[in-house]
Amino acid sequence: AASTGYDGVYRGDVTRTRGDDSICGKPSYKTTFSVVNGQFSIVYDLSHHVGVNLVVQPDGTFSGNQLYKTVQQQSQVKASGRISGNVLDAQIEGLACARSYHLTKG
Questions:
Q1: Would you say 12 and 31 are in contact if contact means Cβ atoms under 8 Å apart?
Q2: Which listed residue, of 27, 44, 48, 61, carries a Cα 20 to 30 Å from 95's Cα?
Q3: What is the 3-state secondary structure (H, E, C) of 3-55?
Q4: pTM above 0.85, yes or no
Q5: Is 74 in contact with 65 (CB distance < 8 Å)?
Q6: pLDDT per residue as tens, the chain (106 positions)
């Protein structure tokens, strides 16, 4: 079951940890996540609407994956992380790109 104790708006930085500008976009940027009823999603590929829907567990951890099709093959994007206190840390990775997130609630 999702835990609503983590609900709120988290803002912070996204840093690309693997991949290049042409495929993965900017090396770093700001983002906002809204956790509602213990659930939120992380977008992996905006132009192709690929993302992962996540449910925060009572201990603050979350993980999930989503299959998606590239031109050549089917691939999988994975996301995981943890909310501890007011800080949300997450990673997302797919075939070409990986990013890490460090966001603060409030």
A1: yes
A2: 61
A3: CHHHCEEEEEEEEEEECCHHHHCCCEEEEEEEEECCEEEEEEECCCCEEEEEE
A4: yes
A5: no
A6: 667 899 999 999 999 999 999 989 999 999 999 999 999 999 998 777 889 999 999 999 999 999 988 777 889 999 999 999 999 999 999 989 999 999 999 9
